[in-house]
User: What shape does this take?
Amino acid sequence: MSEKQSSYEGARALIDSANSADPNQANAGGKQWPKELLYSERMSDMLERYNPEADEVMKLAIRAQHIERWKSPRNAYPEGRIGYLQWRKDLYKIQANTAAELMRRAGFDEAEIERAWKAVAKKNIKGNADTQLLEDVTDLVFIEHYMLEFVGNHPHYSEEKWVDIIHKTWNKMSHDAQQFALSGAVSLPQSLLPLIQRAVGSEEN
Assistant: This one.
């Protein structure tokens, strides 16, 4: 194993070890998972499907997208949009710092760590290709695995609000990711297809 391969495997093991400590559990494929470890598996799987040529820095950044997320709960911040935005801003920085530290421990150089940090911190989504790739994978995973659950958790939302949420998610994605989502490569929740179609306009958009 080369030094670079060793660094990658070491960083991935550290990320997985951290997420394995998640006290929250989720079921998938008849197996119980620590919730954020399952999420990281789904992120890595989607990256392999969507952009298998991604380099090791981005593989790690995408796997670390939700690292130790349970340690920064939403309910630690005030209710409402202002509280939500502050929570999200702090969360991105905490997750980016944690990913950076684990990559540093595994032997990555500072330029590579900075790339991963910017992606996980969601810096300059439309202007930074790394951040856009992470955003694309995040949104594709949300659509395939979490959108239906999210809808179920917010029964008071109107149809128009859902269309707006889906539309905003869609607009954060690159054109390539949008086309990938519509190509049949992503499992779209069937019960939400009418809302998705309204939000995106048509498959040609």
Q: What stands out?
A: The first strand starts at residue 25 and ends at 28.
